[in-house]
Amino acid sequence: MDENPYRAPDEIGYDQPAITRQFVGRAGGGRFLAAQIDHGFGVVLFLAVGMNVVEIVGNIPAGIAALTAYLGYYFLPEWLLGATVGKALFSLRVKQLSGEPCTARQIAVRTAMRLVEVNPFLLGALPAGISILSTKRRQRLGDLLAGTIVVRRNDLNETRSLSRFD
Predict the structure, then answer these.
(1) Which of 154, 162, 150, 160 is nearest to 25 (CA)?
(2) Residue 36 within any structural domain of the chain
(3) Which of 29, 92, 96, 97 has the fewest CB atoms within 10 Å, i.e. the most exposed one?
(4) Is the CB of residue 95 less than 8 Å from the CB of residue 151?
(5) Alpha helices per DSSP H over 24-149
(6) Is residue 10 in some structural domain?
(7) 44 in a domain, yes or no?
């Protein structure tokens, strides 16, 4: 039998896996400014919910509601649209490493890790910044655990549009 490795896959009788593009995430001014804008929106939402609910349900439930609103600001738009307001302003998108839209589980992991990475008791956003600057694909810890990456929308358009709404 002729075992020519240069024959086309259809001649051999099996399909070889497709070559996938390896995305490199974004670091720098745009991502930093997007994070600041998003944090501003999240804090305003946190305070609005917390201050309006505290008289109705008490301090602890109001704190839980406020934290849920803050994290929900990140979770819902990233899951449904692939970007928060800040990311959208800088044409950034959260994607799987393959470039596909993220699953709810992946976004939930990213969002939960925000409690560790962007925590005033743990030096603010320093853990996230160090992770972004020191990883090959510019991923923060939440991205590493979730298998996600933040890329420019144009980077996705070079291959094909993979977002639900791009």
Answers:
(1) 150
(2) yes
(3) 29
(4) yes
(5) 29-57, 59-80, 85-89, 104-117, 126-134, 141-146
(6) no
(7) yes
Q: Write the pLDDT tens digit of every residue in 60-108.
A: 999 999 999 999 999 999 999 999 999 999 999 999 998 899 999 999 9
On whether residue 166 sits in a domain, the answer given is: no
At 122, list the tokens: 């743990």
pLDDT tens readout for residues 3-48: 655 554 444 444 444 434 556 666 667 888 998 899 999 999 999 9
Q: What is the pLDDT of residues 119-161, one digit of tens each?
A: 777 777 788 888 888 888 889 899 999 999 999 887 766 544 4
Q: Judging by beta carbons within 10 Å of its beta carbon (0-12, 13-18, 19+), is residue 150 exposed, middle or buried?
A: buried
3 state SS of 53: helix
Residue 113: domain span: 25-157
| Domain count of the fold of the chain | 1
SS (H, E, C) 78-91: HHHCCCCHHHHHCC
Joined tokens for residue 124 = 């603010």
Of residues 117, 116, 141, the one with CA closest to residue 25: 141
**Residue 116: both structure tokens together:** 């560790």
